[in-house]
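Incident review: delayed structure delivery

Summary: a single-chain prediction request sat in the queue longer than the usual turnaround. Root cause was a stuck worker, restarted by the on-call engineer. No data loss occurred. The affected request and its eventual output are reproduced below so the record is complete for anyone auditing the incident later.

Affected input:
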Amino acid sequence: MAGSVSPATGRAYGVARVCAVWGVPRSSFYLARQAAQGLAPARPTGRRGPKPAVPDTALRAAIRADLARSPWSGEGHRKVWARLRVRDGLRIARKRVLRLMRENALLSPHRARPRPADDHDRKIITDAPNVMWAIDGTQVATVRNSKVWLFATVEHWNAEALGWHVSKRGTRREALQAMGMAVRQQFGHLGRDAARGVQLRHDHGSCFMAEDFQNQTRA
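Output delivered after worker restart:
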């Protein structure tokens, strides 16, 4: 490339300068040029770095011998690794034993634990209003780079927000404000039996699990 001339400028540019402009390592350029000329060296297929004291071939044979002398069938790599260290005195890494056993199909077969059928589509839609409500709270960022709490009470029948409350704190008192707004809007008052029979869903947040909130929503 040092002798190549750019057709646009009529000037010659070196390899280092061109690779720096394109953000390509010079080693990659030379490797690509060798490949184009059919001179690219073969990549090593073995592991990189320093060679282990026990090569893979010897360790593979030791693993097979350990499995053959074991009275049990289908043992995991941890037991094999432990026996090789204690009985055979091989100072080897557990993950290396796992890799070789996996590559040579020597791992014990296992079945995934069956999961129970889950037909729930994560949607709850009631047949009528005021059967089930949900309440939740989240923090919302403001234009002044601060955060406020937003509590909302939602109707499961049509996903309408029946009550809400915005505040700087996110305690049970603020959550009750959103609940009170929904009760007042739907039933006209906050009497003891105003929302009797309405089910309420919420998570296990501290504001909802507080004794005061539980007592108020049960009343």
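Verification: The longest strand covers residues 132-141.
Action items: add queue-age alerting; document worker restart procedure.
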